[in-house]
Amino acid sequence: MRLRLRRMGVDTYQESVVYMHRNCVVCRSEGFEAQSRIVVEGNGRRIVATLNVVTDDWISMDSAGLSEAGWRRLNAPEGTWLRFSHPAPAESASDLRAKVYGQTLDVGQYERLLRDAIAGRLADIELAAFVTACAGDRLGLEENIALTRAMINVGERLQWPRTPVLDKHCVGGLPGNRTTPIVVAIVAAAGYLIPKTSSRAITSPAGTADTMETLAPVELGLAAMRRVVEREGGCIVWGGAVGLSPADDVLIRVERPLDFDSDAQLTASVLSKKVAAGATHVVLDLPVGPTAKVRSAETAASLGRLLSAVAQALGLVVDIHLSDGRQPVGRGVGPALEALDVLKVLRNAADAPQDLRERALELAGRVLDFVPGADGRSGSQRARALLESGAAERKFIAICEAQGGFRQPSAAPHRTVFAAPSDGVVAAIDNRRLSRLAKLAGAPRAPAAGLEIHVRLDQRVGAGEPLLTLHAQTSGELAYANEYLAQHSDIVKLGAAS
Q1: Which residues form the Pyrimidine nucleoside phosphorylase C-terminal domain (predicted)?
Q2: What is the chain's percent helix, strand, coil content, to nearest 5?
Q3: Which helix (H) or strand (E) holds 52?
């Protein structure tokens, strides 16, 4: 029994969804029900999709629709005859149940789970159960190592003709902390390899890949990524396009709406991507602050120990760096606004955000300290010289051109300034609510959306002086963000001026 393919034009993020009328011959004969997992075959290709049952007549009895994600994966023209069947039970079903009930899994079991996840044999609701079962303190060190090894084993792994291969990663949670493009430019300008794969936003208003995409293409395949690195020494590409850790991309898809990622998942995610990209030495930045992802020094120390232990088991050299996470870094929060900050730092502009500049120099210096220079200068001294001489900017533009061409970030047409209601001193800035505000304004979906923050902790401000400027692509999104800001006006908290 067959139905004709119809493109529904429905965005279901990355989940493949198939739509059928409840009374169509396939639904009735096969006994398919809402949320059933179904094999869809057509045009010589095969995918597994989740069924949504249609009760109205907006889809005909002889048609089946696919969401945009399913349409891309099946890659068949509209009108193609499709066949449907029940999928075989996922090989890892027993492993998933075992993890949910608190049992310890080995590398082989994790590999089965992850291969089924990549192949689409597990529904998002099952993946959500897996992510939740791995959260908190449910994974010990050996199991965390097993999960990380499995994530490496089910993806590609790059090798480079020379070592060391350097990298830097921040665990996130700090708005505007876009140091990676600056660090990559400095380290590549110093003549070292730094093949950087980055994520899109999970719970933040922008990931490094989102910001970089406003400056140059980031969806490069493995061959293209290799060409860029061989030509320029470094790259900044979206990890999801190169497939180095495809299981991580699937898990991120589930973590995003859940709005959390556990230490175990974070460790496996970060380190699997570093090893897969061929890195040998990595600086790991952990911002610590009351509204950052890492809330306390004790939590940071625990996470640092876990990252170091798993890295050591994988043969990876890491330097754990604890940084100040009490407030945003730079002025922009959102892809294009963060990109503008990056460009100002690289260009040594007079109005470049100095906190972003100094933080990037510190991290670049620590990366360069992995490979001491012959002239006796510290990594920090070499990093500063490369930035101030313009070498880092030239290398960054060269990397952008090698990835497909440099472009200027766009600007949002709608803006609102939020001013200080009274004289005072900036006593606190809520990173989590600030991120939420930027997302409500449209970031990262609308690259130019987000916000600018005009003040820093302990800064004196007068009544009427700007604290924040919201940027939005549409007036509706701006109104939505303004409403949230009106309800949470203490995102930037003012104390009494002394």
Answers
A1: 425-492
A2: 40, 20, 40
A3: strand 45-54
**Domains in the chain with CATH codes:** 2-85 (2.40.40.20), 166-240+266-402 (3.40.1030.10), 414-495 (3.90.1170.30)
- Tens of pLDDT, residue by residue over 177-210, are 999 999 999 999 999 999 999 888 877 899 999 9
Collapse the DSSP code of 194 into the 3-class scheme (helix H, G, I; strand E, B; otherwise coil) and give the result.
strand
* Three-class secondary structure of residue 107 per DSSP: helix
**Length of the chain in terms of residues written:** 498
Which parts of 231-345 are beta strand (E)? 234-238, 281-288, 317-324, 332-333
Catalytic residue among 95, 167, 261, 285: 261
Q: What gap in Å lies between CA 89 and CA 122, rounded to an integer?
A: 9
Q: What order do you get walking across the sheet with 281-288 strand by strand?
A: 166-170, 281-288, 317-324
pLDDT digits (tens, 9 = 90+) for 14-31: 789 999 999 999 998 888
Residue 38: in which H helix or E strand, if any? strand 37-42
What is the distance between the alpha carbons of residues 11 and 109, in angstroms, rounded to a whole number?
Answer: 32
* Residue entry with tokens 């979206």: 238
Angle between helices 379-388 and 180-189 (to 10 degrees): 100
3-state secondary structure of 59: coil
Residue with tokens 């890195």: 279
Checking DSSP bridges between strand 317-324 and strand 281-288, what pairing results, if any? parallel
Q: E-assigned strands of 356-472?
A: 414-419, 424-429, 450-453, 460-461, 466-472
CA distance 130 to 93: 11
d(CA 208, CA 201): 8
- C-alpha to C-alpha distance for 379 and 368, rounded to whole angstroms: 5
The SS3 assignment for 454 reads coil
- Note the pLDDT tens digit of each residue in 207-266: 999 999 999 999 999 999 999 999 999 999 998 788 787 888 788 778 777 766 688 889
Is pTM beyond 0.85? Reply is yes
SS3 of residue 220 by DSSP: coil
| Sequence letter at residue 321 | H
Sequence-distant (6+) residues with CB within 8 A of 51 are 17, 18, 19, 20, 32, 33, 34, 35, 36, 37, 38
Helix (H) or strand (E) holding 140: none
